[in-house]
Amino acid sequence: MTNDPTAHHTCVHASAAGSMRLLLWVSVPALLLFALVAWQVGVGSDLAFDAALLSYLREGADPAVPHGPAWLLKVARDITALGGGPVLTLITVLAVGYLVARGRRWPALILAAASSSGAWLNSALKDAFVRERPDVVPHLLEVSSASFPSAHAMNSAVVYLTLAMLLAITEWRAPVRSYLVSVAMLLTTIVGATRIYLGVHWPSDVLAGWSIGAAWAAAWSAAAIVIQRRAKAARAP
Fold first, then answer.
1. Local structure of 101: helix, strand or coil
2. pLDDT tier for residue 231 given thresholds of 50, 70 and 90
3. Three-state secondary structure call for residue 173
4. Which residues contact 86 (CB under 8 A, 6 or more apart)?
5. What is the pLDDT of residue 11?
6. Cys-Cys link to 162, which of 72, 186, 217, 236 (CB 3.0-4.6 A)?
């Protein structure tokens, strides 16, 4: 390992450039996927895999009983809370505090803005589409809001992916960057999967939430990279 600060800054710059390319590769397909699903939902088309997957995850004799061992239902209910408003708000507040304490005020502001604007966007989309919750299987959690897109899937993508990218863009070690992004993707994936398992969302709700959430996180992360580059350029002699 080298202690040369020039080499370190070069690695960080290269990681930021690589992150920007990755964000572009992610955001465009994610937006296109969301647009496709949203169009299908908007015109009232029945997506065949929606009802089929929900039914597949339940016992044929009793659709109120999900497949799998008894403990899996409890685990799903616990994990799904990681995408709920209270938990995501707490994580955002703690992460913002950490970034401020580290002197990284712009990343802190970006994370706060991404989280709050993402929640607002999800609420606006729910009001626009007003999709009913699934009715093919009993819900295993109490829910009340509109179904499309899944707030848990979308907001977890926004918070976890944005936070991971904000930490990764100043990390020069590739394994650490990969770990941060992989953990964020894993959390986002399992939160969305629990919404389907619990029968409270159509799979297309979750797919749309993942895609628009990833695109939203990518946009804010790209903004952070641009701000970081401009700040370095301003400090350069």
1. helix
2. low
3. coil
4. none
5. 46
6. 217
